UniProtKB/TrEMBL annotation:
Annotated segments matching region Disordered: 1-44
SUPFAM superfamilies assigned: Coiled-coil domain of nucleotide exchange factor GrpE, Head domain of nucleotide exchange factor GrpE
Keyword Cytoplasm: yes
Role summary: Participates actively in the response to hyperosmotic and heat shock by preventing the aggregation of stress-denatured proteins, in association with DnaK and GrpE. It is the nucleotide exchange factor for DnaK and may function as a thermosensor. Unfolded proteins bind initially to DnaJ; upon interaction with the DnaJ-bound protein, DnaK hydrolyzes its bound ATP, resulting in the formation of a stable complex. GrpE releases ADP from DnaK; ATP binding to DnaK triggers the release of the substrate protein, thus completing the reaction cycle.
GO cellular component: cytoplasm
Family: Belongs to the GrpE family.
Gene Ontology molecular functions: adenyl-nucleotide exchange factor activity; protein homodimerization activity; protein-folding chaperone binding; unfolded protein binding
Assembly description: Homodimer.
Protein name (record): Protein GrpE
Length: 182
């Protein structure tokens, strides 16, 4: 009886080995087939497309984040640029000589409006570009006239400001129009 069991076990093992060999051969044949290579190439192509798309989305998100930061940083630039001529006109009005109580009262009102407008601009990070007796800088100045240099005004210095310049944060909204010693 023991011998019969050994024979059955050997037959069973050889049957298992035979099935295993057939399955291994089938798998190798399947792996080595041209269809598998084609599928692997398609998978690699898809993976490459996926990685490229993921990188592109990441780049777009970074670009949008930077643009959003720029918009927030320079928020109000258009309004400030539109208000600057009003500020100039108020300055001109304040430079006029007035006579009489009514005119003085009106000038006082214009001064109040001017100071409130100036405060509102400063509160929104809009500041005047200082230029008197400074070196000429083409990044913040616009030379509209030149005069000969003298002892008081060396070459390439601002002699007179014709129109004030303003900046928002680190961006020039309007360059100062100046006379430069040459």
């Amino acid at each position: 009886m023991a011998e019969e069991e050994k024979k059955d076990d050997q037959q069973e093992k050889s049957l298992k080995d035979e099935i295993l060999e057939e399955m291994t051969a089938d798998l190798k044949e399947e792996i080595d087939s041209p269809d598998t290579a084609k599928l692997q190439q398609e998978r690699d192509d898809m993976e490459d497309k996926y990685l490229r798309a993921a990188a592109e989305i990441s780049n777009m998100n970074n670009r949008f984040k930077k643009e959003r930061e720029q918009l927030l940083k320079y928020d109000g630039q258009k309004l400030a640029t539109a208000i600057l001529p009003v500020l100039d006109n108020l300055e001109r009005a304040l430079q006029t000589e007035v006579e009489g109580d009514a005119a003085e009262s009106l000038k006082k009102g214009v001064e109040m409006v001017y100071s409130h407008l100036e405060t509102a601009l400063k509160d929104n990070h809009i500041e005047e570009i200082t230029t008197e007796d400074n070196k000429f800088d083409p990044n913040i100045h616009q030379a509209v006239q030149t005069v000969p240099a003298d002892a008081d005004h060396p070459a390439n210095t601002v002699v007179q400001v014709l129109q004030k310049g303003y900046r928002l944060q680190d961006r020039v909204l309007r360059p100062a129009m100046v006379v430069v010693a040459n």
